Amino acid sequence: MNEERELAISPIVQTSVQHNTQVVSNIRNLTASLFGVAAGTLGLESYPGFIFYLVGTLIVSLLVFAVRAEGKPSEYFHRPLGDLWGGEVFSGLSSFVLTWTLFYGLVRA
Amino acid sequence: MAFLGGTLNTVGAVFLTHAVYSTSEHTATFPHAPLPLDITLELLFSILILSAGIVLSSPTLKPIQWARWAGRIQREGPHGEGKWTREGEEILSEGDPFGFLGLDGGIAGKGEGRRGFWDVRGKRKEYTEWVKEGGSR
């Protein structure tokens, strides 16, 4: 009820939310396959590879936070924790694993 | 900003290609030796540069609060964003969705616009000043 009233007082623009989600998802997909290339070339296996991915996404989140959101994520994301810091992390994981295994096979095997 | 992003992307891609090729050659020559430090550093450096370039060349975010979004639209107006259609027409950013009501003409006092909101506070202030003066004019 409280949040509903909050939204009635300061409404949210749906097209902007969609646009921002799209931008973050685009960045995540591109960087996820990039980290896969790096992880495969470094020859990481099992858990270190996933930790590498998580550290990489954290760095990318920091970049988005500093460059695109100008340090004020609540102005651009409805829930900054879920939409910016944790947004689309697991949907990028599949493309990460794809390029990780591909480059591991190409370079190492 | 877009130019800087493109430059970073190009530089990063060159470094990444070089690092991956070096790794491939290294493992082909010494299959069981660990990767040299310089290749590792080059690889990490290149992906850092590339991700910075990707973030910098991404489109800007739009404010989600209606007040800020509408304020920005009203201040900047519909302007080109560097995109053109195939016919050569420039694609403009989104404009004021209530522009067709013609409220601006009325408020600025230039045209025959429709008045959107009556300035209650201003009128009240005028009224209190009128009362303070003694109600005579």
UniProtKB/TrEMBL annotation, chain A:
Chain segments annotated as coiled-coil in the UniProt record: none
Membrane topology reported for the UniProt record: Multi-pass membrane protein
Compartmental location: Endoplasmic reticulum membrane
Cellular component GO terms, alphabetical: EMC complex
GO BP terms in the entry: autophagosome assembly; protein folding in endoplasmic reticulum
Keywords attached to this entry: Endoplasmic reticulum, Membrane, Transmembrane, Transmembrane helix
Spans through the membrane: 50-69, 89-107
Endoplasmic reticulum listed as a keyword: yes
Keyword Protease on entry: no
Protein origin, superkingdom: Eukaryota
Family designation: Belongs to the EMC6 family.
Record-given protein name: ER membrane protein complex subunit 6
Native organism: Lophiostoma macrostomum CBS 122681
TrEMBL record, chain B:
Signal peptide positions (record): none
Pfam families for the chain: MMgT
Keyword Nucleotide-binding in record: no
Keyword vocabulary terms for this entry: Membrane, Transmembrane, Transmembrane helix
Tree of life domain: Eukaryota
GO biological process terms on file: protein folding in endoplasmic reticulum
Annotated localization: Endomembrane system
Membrane topology value: Multi-pass membrane protein
Transmembrane segments: 43-61
Keyword Transmembrane part of the UniProt annotation: yes
A GO CC term assigned to this protein in UniProt: EMC complex
PANTHER family tied to this protein: ER MEMBRANE PROTEIN COMPLEX SUBUNIT 5 (PTHR28144)
Family membership: Belongs to the membrane magnesium transporter (TC 1.A.67) family.
Protein name (database record): Magnesium transporter
Organism: Lophiostoma macrostomum CBS 122681
Phylogenetic lineage: Eukaryota, Fungi, Dikarya, Ascomycota, Pezizomycotina
